[in-house]
Amino acid sequence: MSDSIRNIVILTGAGISAESGIDTFRDGGGLWEQHRVEDVATPEGFARDPALVQRFYDARREAVQKVEPNAAHRALAELDAEWEGDLLIVTQNVDDLHERAGAKRVLHMHGELLSALCASCGQRHKWSEPLVGSPACPDCGAEALRPDVVWFGEMPYEMDRIYEELRRADLFVSIGTSGAVYPAAGFVRDAREFGAHTLELNLQRSEGSYWFDETRKGRASELVPEWVAEVLG
Ligand SMILES: [Zn+2]
């Protein structure tokens, strides 16, 4: 396998973090920790009740610091360390479990819980504390920090770079993602169009499975280490 591939793009989603105990709204029938997506994951929800949204993400930020990466995160970190070709882990997850497992080449297209975005000056700040209480932006001083999480209706980060990497990819691997949320759900078609082999590792067949050359069903903590062992041969 590794003889014919050099550039790898990996897309990860909720399924890889679920095994570390991180819940997302996609697991709960449109609810995320008993909250409706419209209330806590849209700009309109934030405008309606900023205190509720800040408390919600403060709790998620606190929770994420108490969980640990699992075998799937560790296997991808090993691949990142060993792989001499280009590699990019594009994650839809807002936790830092890829990084804590040791991965370096990670792009958070939906932002990060451990980051705060200043709605006044646009700066992003590493942030592990609560945002309730309106702390001042370290750059401009405005009390305008919000969770640095891309909400529905907002543009994901670094789409130009992601499409450039998809164009160059020889192998595209999707791990633990439902294939239901765009634009990430369309990456497999872009990668195929530009000639990449496409592989899906997921608990069950997804809405996007049709587009993959190969789908393997199972837990990420089992499938990912197996696949990484194959690639590193
Ligand atoms: Zn600012």
Structure description:
The structure is a single chain. This protein is of the alpha/beta class and 233 residues long. It contains nine helices and eleven strands. The chain has helices spanning 14-18, 37-40, 43-48, 50-64, 71-82, 97-101, 159-168, 187-193, 220-232; strands at residues 8-12, 31-32, 35-36, 87-91, 106-108, 111-118, 124-126, 145-149, 171-175, 197-202, 214-217. A hairpin with a 5-residue loop joins strand 6 and strand 7 (124-126). The longest helix has 15 residues, at 50-64. The radius of gyration is 18 Å and the shape is globular. The structure holds zinc ion.
Output the keywords.
about 230 residues, six-stranded parallel β-sheet, 9 helices, about 35% helix
Topology:
Layout: E1 8-12, H1 14-18, E2 31-32, E3 35-36, H2 37-40, H3 43-48, H4 50-64, H5 71-82, E4 87-91, H6 97-101, E5 106-108, E6 111-118, E7 124-126, E8 145-149, H7 159-168, E9 171-175, H8 187-193, E10 197-202, E11 214-217, H9 220-232
Parallel strand pairs: 1-4, 1-9, 4-5, 9-10, 10-11
Antiparallel strand pairs: 2-3, 6-7, 6-8
Helix pairs in contact: 5-9, 7-8
Bound molecules: zinc ion.
